[in-house]
Amino acid sequence: KQEVTQIPAALSVPEGENLVLNCSFTDSAIYNLQWFRQDPGKGLTSLLLIQSSQREQTSGRLNASLDKSSGRSTLYIAASQPGDSATYLCAASTGANSKLTFGKGITLSVRP
Amino acid sequence: DGGITQSPKYLFRKEGQNVTLSCEQNLNHDAMYWYRQDPGQGLRLIYYSQIVNDFQKGDIAEGYSVSREKKESFPLTVTSAQKNPTAFYLCASSIVSDFQTQYFGPGTRLLVL
Fold this sequence. Notes:
Radius of gyration of chain B: 13 Å
Distance between the termini of chain A: 41 Å
Helix content of chain A: under 10%
Largest sheet of chain B: 7 strands, mixed
Distance between the termini of chain B: 35 Å
Largest interface: A-B, 24 and 25 residues
Oligomer: heterodimer
Mean pLDDT of chain A: 94
Structural class of chain B: mainly beta
Order of helices and strands of chain A: EEEEEEEEEEE
Number of strands of chain A: 11
Strand content of chain B: over 45%
Number of helices of chain A: 0
Strand content of chain A: over 45%
């Protein structure tokens, strides 16, 4: 059974800092891994999706990497801004028709 | 604008009452999903539907029921058998029924009176 862990549960950084959010998973037979953003009391917005054949994906100031052998994915946020404050969740899938297994999320606060 | 709508935003349930959460999408997506989110927790799958008139149980289906009579609609009923219904409920849909690229609605927060 796939398990997804995100540590720490919360993170506070000053504006402008580059930061890395971590996600670990137990089943290395991963199909893809996704990163989502959730604002308080809102739904999820997909940020990046990495297929198992890929090592990273980039969108603007965001870069997500995937290392299947170590069971880890990271979300790198460059030059953080207060508007980046939100909860970031990762989710892993082990097959084309397999459900997503979500981590508990990391709540990020970027201080002005 | 295409998207997913959920209503109401807040819902209050009395003891022993069934309540229904609405989810509508105009994205022409085949698959729809219901998730439950508790504070500090990841999302857990309640039910999903890959095609009209068909649906499957997820990880925590007990105390919930769904229907899929129309492609654009997937209502969730929280029955009186669900003893701990207080949570944030999220509906999602995807173009094809492969779970992979899901678009989420804004959510409904259910509270017990």
